[in-house]
Amino acid sequence: MSRTLRNRVAVVTGASSGIGMATARLMAREGMKLVLTARREERLRAIAQEIEAAGGGAEIVAGDVADPAMAARLLDAAERRFGGFDVVFANAGYGTERGLLELDADAVRRMFEVNFFSSVDLLRLAAQRLIGAKHRGHLLLCSSALAKFTLPYFGVYAATKAAQAMVARSLRFELEPYGIEVSTVHPITTVTEFFDQAQMQAVRGHSSGTRVPQHAPRLFVQTPERVARAIIRCLKRPTSEVWTSHTVRLSSGLMTAFPWLLDAILRREARRTRTHSKS
Ligand SMILES: NC(=O)c1ccc[n+]([C@@H]2O[C@H](COP(=O)([O-])OP(=O)(O)OC[C@H]3O[C@@H](n4cnc5c(N)ncnc54)[C@H](OP(=O)(O)O)[C@@H]3O)[C@@H](O)[C@H]2O)c1
C-alpha cells in the first residue's frame, strides 16, 4: 500500500543544491515539512522561503555535516519546530576525481568524514530517537552507482559510497523489528554542482550552469529531479535500493560476476580520463 507523505517531517542534508535541493522541493510539494542543512546559509534561506511562500514548512540549520554536534542539532530542530521527524535523507557529500597518489592522507580522511561518518552518525542518532519515541520512520542514504563498482580516479569516493551502502543494508534488517525503513539511493552521473566540486579538468557545459565529465556517456547522464522522483516513490513504497538506471544496475551485476569485464571497462575509462585531463 502506498504511504501518504502529507505532514510527514523530513530532515535533508546537502539541501543547498543538486539532488538534496531537488528532493527537498519535491518533498515540500508532497506536503512534507522540512529541516534543511548545508553550509551555504543564503541558499538554504532562499529554498526555505520558496517552500514557505507555497504554504509549506521549512526550518534551516546551516553548518558542516562533519561537525560532531550537527546530527543532534538537526534532529533537535525537527523536534522543536515540528514535534519530531519521520524521514532522514543523509545526502550531503562530495567527490574528487583524483587518483590515490594525488590525494594526501588528510584529503582521504576528510572525504570519509563528510560522506561516511557524518551520514552514519546521523542515521544512528535518528534511529535511536525513533526507537525511543516508538515511532516508525524511514532513513535514506545517498550512496552512488559507484557503491557497486569503482571508477579510476574515483576510488576513494567510491569507497565512501560502498561503505555507506554496506552499513545501510545491514541496518535495514537491524531496524526491521522497530518498523523503521532504511534505503540507499544509487544515482548515476547527475547534472549537479558535484562535478564543480570534483574539480574536473575536462568538462562539458550545461545550460543549468552545472557540469558533468566530458567522458560520461550521455545515456548515463540524468537530472537531479529524476533522482528526487525516485526517492519520493521509495518513500511511498519503501525498497532497499533506489536506482534510476536499469542499465547501470544490471551492468553492475554483470561486472561483479565477470571481473575481467570490469577490468576491460576500467582500463578504457582510465585512458579516457587521462586523455581528457591532458586536452
Ligand atoms: N552528481 C552525481 O553524479 C552523483 C552521483 C552519485 C551520487 N551522488 C551523491 O549525491 C549526493 C548529493 O550530491 P549532488 O550531486 O547533489 O552534488 P552537489 O550539487 O554538489 O550537492 C552536494 C550538497 O552537499 C552539501 N555538502 C557538501 N559537503 C558538505 C559538508 N561538509 N557539510 C554540509 N553540507 C555539505 C552541499 O552544500 P554546501 O556546499 O552548501 O555545504 C550541497 O548541498 C552526494 O552524496 C553525492 O556523493 C552524486
Main features:
Rossmann fold; two-stranded parallel sheet; alpha/beta; 7-stranded parallel sheet; binds NADP nicotinamide-adenine-dinucleotide phosphate; 9 helices; 279 residues
Structural features, described:
The protein is α/β, with parallel strands linked by helices. It has one domain (9-278): 3-Layer(aba) Sandwich (Rossmann fold), CATH 3.40.50. Helices cover 48% and strands 16% of the residues. It has helices spanning 18-29, 41-53, 70-82, 105-132, 155-174, 194-197, 224-236, 246-257, 259-278; strands at residues 9-13, 33-38, 58-62, 87-90, 137-142, 180-186, 189-190, 203-205, 211-213, 221-222, 241-243. A 7-stranded parallel β-sheet has the order 3-2-1-4-5-6-11, sandwiched between helices. Strands 7-10 form a two-stranded parallel sheet. A two-stranded antiparallel ribbon has the order 8-9. Helix 1 (18-29) links the parallel strand 1 (9-13) and strand 2 (33-38). Helix 1 (18-29) crosses helix 7 and helix 4 runs parallel beside helix 5 (155-174). The radius of gyration is 18 Å and the shape is globular. The structure holds NADP nicotinamide-adenine-dinucleotide phosphate.
